[in-house]
């Protein structure tokens, strides 16, 4: 069994709210050119690769980003 404790590893203290910076950070993760989109592109392109080495390479890259 495991126990899930919802807390941050390092405490974060926010002094000023900066919505513009928050928008940039969120876009990097979930935007059209973000990490998730890149990972999904690598994982979807592996199915059309001609050999197993290329498929394995794209699989490794796609799963290590997330």
Mean pLDDT: 86
What letter string, H or E per element, gives the SSE order?
A: HHH
- Kindly provide the radius of gyration, computed on alpha-carbon positions and rounded to a whole number of angstroms: 18 Å
* Low-pLDDT runs: none
Question: Number of DSSP strands?
Answer: 0
Biggest β-sheet strands, sense, barrel: none
Instruction: Determine the structural class based on helices, strands and strand pairing.
Output: mainly alpha
SSE order and pairing:
Elements (H helix, E strand, L loop, with lengths): L18 H12 L4 H11 L6 H14 L1
Summary, kept brief:
By secondary structure, the chain is mainly α. It contains 3 helices and no strands.
Would you mind describing this structure in some detail?
This protein is mainly α and 66 residues long. It has a domain at 33-66. The protein contains three helices and no strands. It has helices spanning 19-30, 35-45, 52-65. The chain is flat. The mean pLDDT is 86.
Features:
56% helix; 0% strand; mainly alpha; 66 residues
């Amino acid at each position: 069994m495991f126990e899930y404790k919802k807390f941050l590893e390092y405490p974060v203290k926010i002094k000023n709210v900066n919505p513009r910076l928050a928008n940039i950070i969120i876009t990097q993760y979930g935007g059209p050119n973000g990490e998730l989109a890149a990972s999904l592109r690598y994982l979807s392109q592996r199915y059309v690769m001609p050999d197993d080495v290329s498929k394995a390479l794209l699989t490794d890259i796609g799963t290590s980003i997330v």
